[in-house]
Amino acid sequence: MFSSLQNPRQAAAQLMNFGLILSTAFMMWKGLSVITDSPSPIVVVLSGSMEPAFQRGDLLVLWNRNLYSETNVGEIVVYNVKDKDIPIVHRVVRKFGIGPDAKLLTKGDNNLSDDTELYARGQDYLVRKDIIGSVVGFIPFVGYVTIMLSEHPWLKTAMLGIMGLVVVLQRE
Amino acid sequence: MYSSIVRAQNSFGFFTTVVFVVASLIAVSDLLTPRAPAVGTLKTTNVQVVRGRPHYYSSKKEEYAVIKFSLDADLSSLFTWNTKQVFVYVTAEWPATPAVTGTPSNTTLNQAVIWDTIITAPSADHLANIGPAALKKLQKSAAGKSIDPSRGKLSIKNQRPKYQITHPSGKIAETDNVVLKLHYNVQPWVGLLTWNQDVDIGLWKQLKGGLSKKFSLPAIKKKADAKV
Question: Which CATH number fits domain A37-141: 3.40.50.970, 1.20.272.10, 2.60.40.640, 2.10.109.10?
């Protein structure tokens, strides 16, 4: 059963295999990041402020290039508030001006008022560089796993444990 | 142990593959459904500019445009089996006045949403954030139907704007060349989000109409008769 532990060559091969899987996933993520020009090309919806369009756990595909047009009113964007690292997914409802300095105001479809309250002190509007991407694709529910994992940390341990056990027990 | 783990892995892998393929087919089916949205009328019925404060505790006074409008539109072709909701919004757009920015007009464009609405497809009615009575009514209106194109037919008379708009400078009175524009955003159950387009793409026709006549915002109303 524990033959892989007794055979160092096989153990090394398994380690390599595991490393290969990890690095492939990492490369795909970073590759997608380069293609979309977004630091986080896929995000999970964490709040209900865009309901009924997006529920918690839905997966959003982002695009951060302005190939044909600028980021316009009506687009759903993911932005980071100045000096805070919490991405927020809301719709652009006002835009004053054109270009990188255009002032943008966002609002959640499900919220009564706009996001002025959410912005940093002294920040009345967003600019283009606060935005890390516009939502172009939608995959429901798949991201719920990550919400489960972050809300119930013991699941992480359990999952890692099971994965480790499988790796150890499994013979290639 | 060995074979049961492998079996579980294989069936899970197959399951995800099937789900992925079916989801992609559904997403692609959007492209094969013709769309021909059209706007009959979009016109302002009453335009005012009033003075107000951005919020209760603010001492800053700003000018707000209150634009009432009428709208007739047929967006029924946007509702398919993959439609979760259609977000319809009306924007006011105007070029910057040279006095404010120092740049010649029509170089800088201002856009602000004055009104929006969420039209859920019957399959997403249960997600709508409305009161229980309204929800019951909404669900009843499409009982037994999975797709209800009639929801895309909008007929709105003399609608008050949901949002009173201003400019970051606080000045908006006596602005010329303002137009209202209707937009939509189709939210699918799975796949790509789409907006109204200015050109035909495959079977999707461009939005017909959807632009009001140019109008000017009036001067500020006297305090005595300004009611917001």
Answer: 2.10.109.10
